[in-house]
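Quick one, T. Sequence first:
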Amino acid sequence: MTSNVNNDTPNLPNPSQQKANNSLLIGALLVVLGLVAIALPAFSTIVAETWIALILVSAGTGKLVYAFQTREQGGFIWKLLLSILYIATGLMLFFNPLTGVLTITLLLGTFLLTEGTFELILAFRLRPQQNWTWALANAIGTLLLGALIWFQWPSNAPWLLGTLVGVSVLFTGISRIMLSLSGRPAINAGDQVPTT
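Structure tokens:
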């Protein structure tokens, strides 16, 4: 028994194909934004610092509202102080962006040195296991990155954050494009209608 396919039927957009196209477009946009951030590191550093400031002010405002909503439950003073700390830090970063960039860069270097130290301890605790050297390599890399940030501070502050954000956005865009392209053959194969 044969079934005829009506060729006069208009091609309806495939939802899977549309999702893949949207993902590909977003990936391309992220790649462009990442390259711009890397090409203009001073500008992207200020944008990243301002974004962090706005997040802190927003979080502090939310904590302040929560503190007043739950003041009957106890701990009101601590919630209030924490919300004021968030808001004050955010405002300081927002109104003094250069100081904020210096501070965030120093905090990033400190964080990486601390994280690398803990990863190094973890690596030696994992030493009897197979492939423990991967954890060791990760710890050494994190420590080196933290040390580079610390020893080049403050001269690296104007470009470091923007460059790191740009690299992160660039790789996110590349991975999204690759995932979208790898899903296309399966989608295209599913679009073929058997004519028998």
